[in-house]
Design goal:
By secondary structure, the protein is of the alpha/beta class. It has a domain of about 130 residues. A 6-stranded mixed sheet has the order 2-1-3-4-5-6, sandwiched between helices.
Amino acid sequence: MKHRPLATICFVLLAGCSASLGQHVSPCSAGVPPQAVYLVSGEPGIPADELAQLPQVCVVRAFEDLQVFAVSPIAIWIDQHAVQLVDVPWLQEPPQRYYPVVLVGYGTDLYAFRELMGLPIGGPAVDWSTEPPRPGFSVWLITDETPDSQRAEMKGYEERPSGRRILELTNEMLQRAPGRRTPMGHLPSEGS
């Protein structure tokens, strides 16, 4: 009888420890709704101390973790060293197809999205050995799409990647009226 309270305390402590071991630790600050998810590999292009001051930016190191956050509108940031982790066909499917995408590390937008990411973007052939890509960051957002055409905003920023600056840009993009965006090959529903 004397050992029962001690046994109960030990059981509760052990149960709590085993439950916390099985839980996924969120890369976001608790209680702060995520506004962007940043996929990194190695040292991120945005300094870690700056990212620590942005609790609304979830830093992840696995593409599967990025996918978890993309179930609702969010900006997708991809570090230049994490491009190989991205499933580009998944990125081109709705709903994430219509989210702002940022490539951190290159301010030359055509290089960032067509050459490095492999997005199907037309444009001139460029000899990157004579016109090397510039450092910075680039943003992409599909602004209008029908079964026959697509318009997108693509812009490079040849400046030091700043988490605050990128967050400001992508939040503005998320707030815009989405225009006419429909999955490729489908007609918009009534009232769109």
